[in-house]
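Appendix B, example 12.
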Amino acid sequence: MASATGEGIAVLDAQTCWQLLAGEEVGRLAVAVHQHPDIFPVNYAVDAETIVFRTAEGSKLFALFVDSAVAFEVDSYYAESGTAWSVVIKGRAAEIPMQDLLDDVAFPLFSWTATPKPRFVRVVPDEITGRRFHVVQRRPGPIG
């Protein structure tokens, strides 16, 4: 369900946001790394109204240990209808202890890269917001 604003933007309810998120595989995780914002593309899965992704040791995991506050965004564009949507989650991220993963092979989340990503992270939302809108026509040719 969505409610329209005066600008032709539909505000999406939480259920619709989760349905859209469940239909995609790649999102962007925003964290603070050494007191500077950084964004990482991650492949993810929706699990009981949370986001789960795999990672290796490095900047993302380090940032989450320092400050668990994150933002997570997914969006999509449908050329045939000229519509787009964007969903943003603001919340907390924490590594999932291995003992809580009964079988990591059975969990439906696999890395797109050959780099081993043995650590699982769960993003628990404090807030989820979404918008759907029509994309305006682009200007033809270069500007200037």
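Residues 2-134 form a domain with the Pnp Oxidase; Chain A fold (CATH 2.30.110.10). Helices lie at 14-22, 59-66.
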